[in-house]
Write a structure and sequence with these properties.
This protein has 271 residues and is an alpha/beta fold. It is 38% helix and 17% strand. It has a 7-stranded mixed beta sheet, sandwiched between helices. Strands 5-10-7 form a 3-stranded mixed beta sheet.
Amino acid sequence: MTIGIIISAYNNPAWLNKALYGYTRQSVMADEVIVADDGSTIETREIVDLYRDRLPIRHVWQEDKGFRKATILNKAVKESTADYLIFTDQDCVPRGDFVATHRALAEEGRYLSGGCFKLSRRVSGLLTEEDIASGRAFGAEWLRRQGQPWTYKMMKLVRNALFARVMNVVTPRAPTFNGCNSSCWRKDAIAVNGYDERMRYGGQDREFGLRLQNNGIRPRQIAYSAIVLHLDHDRPYKNEETIRKNRVIIGETEATKRVWAQLGIEKESSF
């Protein structure tokens, strides 16, 4: 099977650069990398251009008309050609086995639910390409020496396959579709008409996962197996009113067992 990475992006070229560099250091390389750009300025395109000789990369862009992540993700899914799609964000730096892990654990009738380890703002800024390439950035002790506060979530960074399998099973965290680190078959994304474009910031990824589940696609927890570092940043687009509206849509999806996005990849299909 072929593997595609879809990376949502908006006006943070420095963080995108670190994330893309991580994809040049994978033990298993992706067959395509699509930067799904929700209206960034030219600096983001310039970062993408830096990687054209190192990654099979494409830049899918739309005009900035506010937070429209669902819309640009649908455009990226439609543009993609890979059999299997990993969804992530510009602020997420993958460990060297990230693509290999998603590939190895992919199976029919499933989507994979990963997570992230959140770095402090200071450590996010300190992270270098050498830190990523050497793998030391993904070690708890190294991060603590840089000033990263210790929390129990550092257990995610323990690189032991047996430990990861056990923790994926016993963790109380429910597997949901998370925009920072989840994957599914492209055909399954198409079957539910992609993301619901009525939704703005807050929960659109989860709602997409619910419709996958309503269509018979079961989630599998891989939070301790597929590791990304989340780089800290501001969220000026966060809006409590849109979050409230999104909760209503999520509630409807749960209650009605809806499968088809009312406004998704296809805009004129019946639902």
